[in-house]
Write a structure and sequence with these properties.
alpha+beta; 9 helices
């Protein structure tokens, strides 16, 4: 057998083992993904969340009533769906001109002149569905969700703020580049949070403001910019549905965003399995396919190596075994990363092969590099015994 042909077969064995390990890692990854998916649904009390995100920069949209109407139409359609729609967005306030102390979301500390004051905007159903309770004051009511120019914006404060302020206090700040005055109407109990499998916000150091509707038409470009971003945030919420309703809900959401006149939206899901099935990518099917591919490449590598050992008496030097092992590690890592990062990302699943899987791949490679010369020695010994016989 020529050296070149022997080299080609050796390279093919390395590639086959690399692909076998890659498909094995991908199979285990899918099992881990399904386990994580089940834990998410259990954490969400049997529900699944469909999330929307406005992707177009609102600044690039026209400062016109038509633009605002486009956002409002999408919002109204989301509200009329037979599912629960949550408005939940983290938009910080600029309280740098106020003399009070606020929690800085960037530096994670209380300070004066804070430009990134931690703040979230919520719909009224967040209060009831996430069991927000009060230490003092009152919760947000329906009237708080209609804003008139010049009026105070009522806000709830996290428990930690009760040491700095009291109910009825006011402070000033910029929300989406426009100045507003905020009035404190209540303080939440300690340990309050908005928690699900896809979001966990500790509210103790947070300002909670209503995701209100503007009652008046903007009169300046600055007011248009504020309202455009505000309504883009209002339409970037979450739908709570049951898993068996996912297909219908997903199709309804797709119909809504396809009719958008205010840019594009992306859609995500808290359930990987639900969104993959809806996009024609069954995790169960791919688990079977990747498992079969793993077995196929293992068989090919063993078959070719066995053919070489039967026909040739040669040993692989240590440095070549190490080189082959490193090659297998590198190829396996690249291919596994491609499967997990790019293939799954095409259907909206962002998942990466975990470190334990990478370590396990290295273990298999080292095991192969150790066992390979032993197999060769036994093969050579058997051939010698047969020839002597």
């Amino acid at each position: 057998m020529g050296k070149h042909f022997k080299l080609i077969l050796t390279v093919f064995v390395v590639i086959s083992l690399s692909l076998a390990i890659s498909f094995f890692a991908f199979s285990v990854g899918i099992l881990d993904l399904k386990r994580f998916d089940s834990e998410r649904i259990a954490m969400d009390q049997g529900n699944v969340y469909i999330g929307l995100q406005h992707e177009t920069n609102p600044m690039t949209l026209d400062n016109s009533e038509d633009t605002l109407e486009g956002f409002k139409q999408i919002f109204n359609r989301l509200q009329t769906l037979p599912y629960t729609y949550y408005e939940l967005y983290q938009q910080p306030l600029d309280c740098s001109l106020d003399q009070g102390e606020f929690f800085d979301a960037y530096f994670q500390e209380y300070s004066r002149g804070c430009q990134q004051t931690q703040c979230i905007q919520i719909s009224t159903n967040i209060q009831s569905d996430f069991n927000l309770s009060l230490a003092s004051g009152r919760l947000l009511c329906l009237e708080d969700y209609e804003h008139i120019n010049g009026a105070f914006i009522p806000v709830l404060m996290g428990y930690d703020y009760s040491k700095l302020y009291k109910v009825g206090d006011t402070f000033s700040g910029n929300y989406l580049f426009s100045p507003f005055t905020f009035e404190i109407i209540g303080f939440l109990n300690e340990g309050s949070s908005v928690y699900s499998s896809t979001v966990c916000i500790d509210l103790d150091r947070c300002i909670i403001m209503p995701s209100f509707n503007f009652k008046e038409t903007p009169k300046s470009d600055q007011e248009f910019i504020t309202q455009k971003i505000h309504y883009a945030n209002k339409t970037s919420g979450k739908l709570r549905i049951s898993p068996n309703e996912f297909a219908d809900a997903y199709n309804m959401v797709q119909d809504i965003i396809k009719s958008s006149t205010v840019g594009t939206y992306s859609v995500t899901s808290s359930s990987f399995g639900s969104i993959s099935n809806e996009k024609g990518f069954s995790l169960n099917v791919w688990f079977v396919i990747s498992g079969l591919c793993c077995l196929l490449f293992i068989y090919l590598s063993l078959f070719i190596e066995n053919r070489i050992l039967k026909k040739e008496r040669f040993s692989i030097p240590l440095y070549k075994r190490i080189l082959a092992a490193l090659s297998i590690v590198l190829i396996s890592f690249v291919v596994s990363s491609f499967f997990s990062k790019y293939l799954l990302a095409r259907i909206g699943i962002f998942y990466h092969i975990t470190l334990p899987l990478a370590i396990f791949s290295v273990f298999l490679v080292l095991l192969f590099s150790i066992c390979s010369p032993i197999i060769q020695m036994r093969g050579q010994k058997n051939r010698i015994m047969k020839e002597n016989f």
